[in-house]
Design brief:
Residues 9-138 form the DAGKc domain. It comes from Pedobacter endophyticus. This is Diacylglycerol kinase family lipid kinase. It holds the Pfam family YegS_C. With 300 residues, this protein is an alpha+beta fold. It folds into two domains: 3-133, Rossmann fold; 138-290, Tumour Suppressor Smad4 (Sandwich). 26% of the residues lie in helices and 37% in strands. It has helices spanning 30-37, 55-64, 77-89, 104-108, 115-124, 148-158, 164-175, 237-246, and strands at residues 3-5, 12-18, 43-49, 70-75, 93-98, 126-135, 138-140, 143-147, 181-187, 190-196, 198-202, 206-208, 211-212, 224-229, 255-260, 262-266, 271-275, 278-282, 285-298. The strands form three sheets. Strands 1, 2, 3, 4, 5, 6, 7, 9, 10, 16 and 19 form an eleven-stranded mixed beta sheet that branches. Strands 15-14-11-8-17-18 form a six-stranded antiparallel beta sheet. A two-stranded antiparallel sheet has the order 12-13. Helix 2 (55-64) runs parallel beside helix 3 (77-89) and helix 6 crosses helix 7 (164-175). The protein is globular. The structure holds adenosine-5'-triphosphate. The site of adenosine-5'-triphosphate has 24 residues, from helix 3.
Length: 300
């Protein structure tokens, strides 16, 4: 594990990239709030709101080329994905203000939802390096996956209402009709054939909202947890929900977890995948790898 602190001779240029729609929360007052609690002796702060999907990545790229050393993703895992992809590319430092619906990576890193406390973490400038994943060359930082989770994220992204309740409602509508598929997996050279409801590749332990798919996952072990949710009778949905909320999914016979660093997955058809909850379409064959300790993040 590598922990560093900046020795500050001059002020650090910091950019807050704010997603106005994440978490279903209005954020017009956020810049004033940040301005009040950010340490002005350490930082020159700038703020910008995103205007469309992909804009956070463009803004982070621009900022990296303009002397910003620390870039803060103010949103959920989708916003972090866009910002962190560029932070990783330009070897900058990522900060997080958890303003999303699920906030999976922020929860895993113990960054509080209370913005004042989250800002106190930024003020301390304590940096750690974490693993990052690649899903057919698309970076991810929390979770990527296919099957039901990918199907749901594709539908959720078209929904105007964000937030936890909308997600749960949609999930319950869709779970009844979703059909499990057969996948061929190669994990660090070993072959597996599995029929699955969903498969997640977990860098952190959770989807968000403290729903744990991979309770023993670590962002520092150079490994991903391949979490296979087996096909199940709808009557067992409460059991599956219970073990995920309790953080005991690995003990359930409905879930199989295999750790690995080089994974190839072959499915029956092209279709939906998700990276950090954002929907994408990919082909039948997907390669998943991990870059150990590759991203610098501000942590408590
Ligand atoms: N101005 C905007 N209008 C519409 N979509 C936007 C805008 N700015 C960013 N986005 C998109 O919003 C999406 C959702 O963002 P994000 O994932 O951060 O929030 P969330 O889904 O509420 O939280 P979480 O992923 O933690 O559950 C991302 O795909 C992002 O590209």
């Amino acid at each position: 594990m590598c922990t560093q602190s900046y020795i500050l001779h001059t002020k650090t240029n910091i950019l807050f990239i704010i997603n106005p729609i994440s978490g279903g929360r209005v954020k017009l007052a956020i810049p004033d709030f940040i301005d009040r609690y950010l340490d002005k002796d350490k930082f020159n702060a700038n703020f910008v709101f995103t205007e469309y999907v992909g804009h956070a990545a463009e803004l982070a790229e621009e900022a990296s080329n303009k002397n910003f050393d620390v870039i803060i993703a103010c949103g959920g895992d989708g916003t972090i994905n866009e910002v962190a992809g560029k932070v990783l590319k330009y070897n900058k430092v990522l900060g997080i203000l958890p303003l999303g619906s699920g906030n999976g990576l922020a929860r895993f890193l113990k960054i509080p939802k209370n913005i004042r406390y989250a800002l106190s973490i930024i003020n301390r400038l304590k940096i750690e390096e974490i693993d990052t994943g690649e899903f057919n060359e698309k970076c991810f930082f929390n979770l990527a996956g296919l099957g039901f989770d990918a199907h749901l994220s594709a539908i959720f992204s078209k929904d105007k209402k964000r937030g936890l309740s909308g997600y749960v409602k949609l999930g319950l509508q869709e779970v009844f009709n979703y059909k499990a598929e057969t996948y061929l997996l190669e994990i660090d050279g070993k072959q597996y054939k599995r029929k699955a409801f969903a498969i997640s590749f977990a860098n952190s332990s959770q989807y968000g909202n403290d729903v744990y798919i991979a309770p023993n996952a670590s962002v520092k072990d150079g490994l991903l947890d391949v979490c296979i949710i087996k096909p199940f009778s709808i009557l067992k949905l409460p059991v599956l929900s219970y073990v995920m909320l309790k953080g005991t999914a690995e003990t359930s016979d409905m879930v199989e977890i295999i750790k690995g660093s080089h994974i190839k997955i072959t499915r029956q058809n092209d279709g939906a995948v998700h990276v950090d909850g954002e929907p994408l379409q990919m082909g039948k064959v997907i390669e998943v790898t991990v870059k150990p300790l590759s991203l610098k993040v501000l942590v408590p």
